[in-house]
Design brief:
CATH class of the largest domain: Alpha Beta
Mean pLDDT: 86
Shape: elongated
Distance between the termini: 31 Å
Number of strands: 8
Structural class: alpha+beta
Helix content: 40-55%
Low-confidence stretches: 1-19, 21-36
CATH superfamily of the largest domain: endopeptidase domain like (from Nostoc punctiforme)
Radius of gyration: 21 Å
CATH topology of the largest domain: endopeptidase fold (from Nostoc punctiforme)
Order of helices and strands: HHHHHHHHHHEEHHEEEEEE
Largest sheet: 6 strands, antiparallel
CATH architecture of the largest domain: Alpha-Beta Complex
Number of domains: 2
């Protein structure tokens, strides 16, 4: 995992490229569960689905895999009687407006999974925005819009009264919610969401005392070196982790020491993306926390004058522990 990620970071790549490198390496591991895939996915598509599954918060790798299984059973040559095409079953008119050149070979090919799978994720994200104000479960409304169109979801104020669409949504939700072998799906899915949430705020300024469950906030005065966050909107280290874990419904306390007390220590060899890395000399004197992303890297808000960013896990020498917040 380390070589791909380090190469990307060393080349000055964007945050998305770095995460893609880490995710690709994780998805190629024998377990195949780095991001919680419980749907049985052909090896040829695991990397594509895992990468595309982080396109937005409304879509997870497992949900995307469940959709593709339902649409085509992962058959890139699938063609329906009504004209839907490819592994993601795009209608030609929808492909014309929503298809992307996922593999950057200069053409958008609905029959090529390298184009169709990321296009499906991007289209789901756009549908999620279109139906975000519709009552009911947002994920179910998004899936209904993929099947019946966002117009129908808006018209009926939720999943339209079509037997096909209702069965479609139920099938995908049930398939995506199936536990992965070994029972690690929920943990891995939470970790993926936490990493994606922190990735979304890369570049946000460090602010001492800044950050809440809702996002960046102005901070307070003063850090041990006298820096004040009272005029800076952003995150400090534990504000970032508090915010990211709120995305998965886990309410963390405010300081690094308190967050460690609310977490279960894990062995380094068992660390998963989303786990927290704590720095200090004892449980009560922890001074920093970051979010583990794999390959020896974390996402963190390091100190005054910096921004939320990727940092080497060993950029601070006093690693105290890796721990996994306990759901309540």
């Amino acid at each position: 995992m380390r070589s791909a990620a380090v190469a990307a970071i060393g080349a000055g790549a964007t945050a998305a490229v770095v995460v893609a490198a880490l995710v690709q390496a994780a998805s190629d591991t024998p377990s195949g569960k780095a991001l919680g895939l419980s749907v049985s996915v052909p090896d040829a598509y695991k990397r594509l689905i895992t990468n595309a599954g982080g396109t937005c918060r409304a879509v997870s790798p497992n949900l995307l895999a469940a959709l593709l299984e339902t649409e085509s059973q992962f058959n890139p040559k699938a063609a329906s009687p009504v004209g839907a095409q490819g592994i993601a079953q795009f209608m030609p008119s929808t492909w014309e407006t929503s298809g992307i050149d996922g593999n950057r070979d200069g053409k958008r090919d609905v029959w090529d999974p390298e184009d169709a799978i990321p296009s499906a994720a991007k289209y789901l994200c756009s549908l999620a925005k279109e139906v975000k104000d519709v009552p009911g479960d947002g994920q179910s409304n998004m899936l209904a819009a993929y099947n019946a169109g966002s117009g129908a979801v808006l018209k009926y104020g939720g999943i339209p009264p079509y037997k096909e669409t209702q069965g479609y949504v139920q099938s995908i939700v049930a398939l995506a919610g199936k536990p992965a072998p070994g029972g690690n799906s929920s943990t891995a899915e939470r970790g993926a969401t936490v990493v994606n949430a922190a990735q979304d705020v890369i570049g946000t300024p460090y602010s001492w005392g800044g950050g809440s469950v809702s996002g960046p906030t102005t901070g307070t005065c003063c850090s041990p070196n006298g820096s004040s966050g009272s005029s800076i909107t952003g995150f400090d280290c534990s504000g970032l982790t508090l915010y990211a874990y709120a995305r998965v419904g886990i309410s963390l306390p405010r300081t690094a020491a308190e967050q460690y007390a609310a977490s279960e220590p894990v062995k380094p060899e068992q660390a998963m993306p989303g786990d927290l890395v704590f720095y200090g000399s004892s449980p009560t004197s922890l001074h920093h926390v970051g979010i583990y992303v794999g390959g020896g890297w974390i996402l963190d808000a390091p100190r005054p004058g910096t921004e939320v960013r990727f940092s080497p896990m060993k950029s601070m020498r006093d690693i105290f522990a890796i721990a996994r917040p306990i759901p309540h």
